[in-house]
Design a protein that fits this description.
Length: 252
């Protein structure tokens, strides 16, 4: 596991009231603040500390949002209260904070149509979030939650490249994380922003020997062009997955 920031924030985490639902007033506070830059604020969240180095599929978003942050803290506190190890607790926080609701449904539907389910030899890629979780790693270009005026940062204004804070995480921290994943993995960038940043990372000479599923739309319901984008790219995506499967037969 990569060196984490958990030790810095654990004393404050242990003071949180585990008997009530956590709110922004509990977590978006100075004691969990990592950095501020203009109107951007980055806060600590534990779920992206855990790295599944042996994953065969890596799904990459832009940055965690508020819901993921809340779920991660809630699960971490629960795990610690059950005397689980720190690594077990971080892993549980990661699983709790993964995709949920309509976004997960949209994601699984597109992954199935690309034949990703064949990697786990299962009926649906939903198994990657359950019994075949050992094959999956979920992460973000910016590993900690970022907010713009206390609203989820979407990756656009300001752009990641124009922000010294965000670009340092995208081009240094994320690169170090991806280097921990045993190649060759299948990397799935969610949306054009993530795809563009990964391409820039590779153009800077980072030798990350994986297969990249470029052209995969962001599964958010807010992405109104998602279905059209996917239909245009589906055959290309499916061909990439099938080529990867031919060369790599993961053990389930």
């Amino acid at each position: 596991m990569l060196e984490t920031k958990l030790d810095l924030y654990l004393p404050s985490i242990l003071t949180l009231n585990s008997t009530k639902t956590l709110t922004k007033d509990d977590l978006l506070t100075d004691k969990f603040l990592i950095a501020k830059e203009d109107q951007l604020s980055m806060y600590y969240s534990p779920h992206n500390e855990y790295i599944n180095k042996s994953a065969k599929i890596v799904i990459v978003g832009i940055t965690p949002g508020w819901v993921q942050m809340k779920e991660a803290y809630t699960q971490l506190i629960k795990s610690i209260n059950h005397n689980h190890s720190i690594e077990q607790s971080l892993k549980a926080a990661k699983m709790a904070a993964s995709f949920s609701g309509n976004m997960k449904k949209n994601l699984v539907d597109m992954l199935d149509q690309c034949s990703i389910n064949e990697i786990s030899q299962s009926y649906s890629t939903s198994s990657l979030f359950h019994e075949h979780r050992h094959l999956l790693h979920t992460t973000s270009i910016i590993k900690y939650p970022v907010f713009l005026k206390e609203k989820n940062y979407t990756g656009h204004k300001p752009s990641i490249i124009s922000s010294p804070l965000l670009s340092s995480y995208a081009f240094h921290e994320f690169s170090k994380e991806l280097e921990q994943i045993q190649s060759p993995a299948l990397i799935i960038p969610l949306g054009k922003t993530v795809e563009h940043l990964i391409k820039q990372l590779l153009s800077r000479g980072k030798h990350l020997e994986h297969t990249y599923l470029y052209g995969f739309p962001h599964p958010s319901g807010a992405n109104g062009h998602r279905k059209k984008q996917f239909e245009e790219q589906k055959q290309t995506l499916k061909n990439l997955v099938e080529d990867w499967l031919e060369k790599n037969k993961p053990c389930t």
